[in-house]
């Protein structure tokens, strides 16, 4: 009787351990999926942020104000980097614009679109990453906006989640050096 009881306990222990291991494996697999979803460079997120920036640029190419507005937050800023001299040195950065509120952003875009013909831009994504509700994309771009052109310009896009939607919050733009026609009045920025 003692042997049967010991075997029954052993079998119960083995079954419980197997169930625990199965549960641990399920928990681990669930954790692994959640970590993959949060890991920078996850294809789904990368495609989403690349799509957001691509839609923004396509909006300019198509002169589609509503498409562009759908990509931007209600507050938007732009910093221009002088890329001809040490682009990563903050001493070469300058404020370009900051617009607050949907109406202010829309008014800026209406004016900006008028001088953005033709608009062409080829984008290569160098880096896309995120943590929580903030993301960043680094791009290399070659294109044209009106009479201005750029070749292999590095831009840094700052992305934030607003009401469960990813929006462009701001951009650090490599400038077309030298900035021809630039004045200290940044109401109509020259660099893109």
Description:
A six-stranded mixed β-sheet has the order 2-1-6-5-4-3. The protein is elongated and about 90 Å long. With 192 residues, the chain is of the alpha+beta class. Mean pLDDT is 74; it is low at 35-39 and 177-192. A hairpin with a 2-residue loop joins strand 3 and strand 4 (134-145). Helix content is 40%, strand content 35%. The protein contains four helices and six strands. The chain has helices at residues 2-38, 43-61, 65-71, 102-114, and strands at 72-81, 93-100, 119-131, 134-145, 148-162, 165-174. The protein has two domains: 1-38; 43-174, Nuclear Transport Factor 2, Chain: A (Roll), CATH 3.10.450.
Strand coverage percent: 35-45%
Q: Under CATH, the topology of the largest domain is which? A: Nuclear Transport Factor 2, Chain: A
Question: H/E element string?
Answer: HHHEEHEEEE
- Choose one word for the global shape: elongated
Count of folded domains: 2
CATH architecture identity of the largest domain: Roll
**CATH class annotation of the largest domain:** Alpha Beta
| Low-pLDDT segments | 35-39, 177-192
Distance between the termini: 86 Å
Cα-atom Rg, whole angstroms? Answer: 26 Å
Helix content: 25-40%
Coarse structural class:
alpha+beta
Strand order of the largest sheet: 2-1-6-5-4-3
The average pLDDT score comes to 74
Number of helices in the DSSP assignment: 4
How many strands in all? Answer: 6
Largest sheet: 6 strands, mixed
What does the secondary structure layout of this molecule look like, with pairings?
Layout: H1 2-38, H2 43-61, H3 65-71, E1 72-81, E2 93-100, H4 102-114, E3 119-131, E4 134-145, E5 148-162, E6 165-174
Parallel strand pairs: 1-6
Antiparallel strand pairs: 1-2, 3-4, 4-5, 5-6
């Amino acid at each position: 009787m003692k042997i049967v009881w010991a075997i029954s306990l052993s079998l119960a222990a083995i079954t419980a351990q197997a169930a625990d291991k199965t549960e641990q494996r399920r928990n681990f697999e669930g954790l692994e999926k959640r970590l993959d979803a949060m890991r920078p460079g996850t294809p789904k997120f990368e495609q989403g942020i690349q799509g957001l920036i691509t839609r923004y640029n396509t909006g300019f190419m198509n002169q589609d104000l509503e498409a562009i507005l759908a990509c931007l937050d209600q507050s938007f800023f732009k910093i221009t980097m002088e890329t001809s001299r040490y682009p990563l040195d903050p001493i070469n950065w300058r404020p370009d614009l900051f617009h607050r509120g949907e109406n202010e952003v829309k008014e800026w875009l209406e004016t900006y679109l008028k001088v953005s013909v033709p608009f062409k831009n080829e984008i290569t994504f160098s880096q896309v990453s995120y943590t929580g509700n903030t993301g960043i994309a680094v791009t290399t771009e070659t294109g044209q906006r009106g009479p201005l052109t750029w070749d292999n310009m590095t831009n840094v896009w700052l992305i934030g989640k607003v009401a469960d939607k990813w929006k462009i919050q701001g951009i650090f733009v490599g400038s077309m050096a030298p900035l021809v026609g630039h004045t200290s009045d940044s109401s109509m920025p020259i660099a893109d």
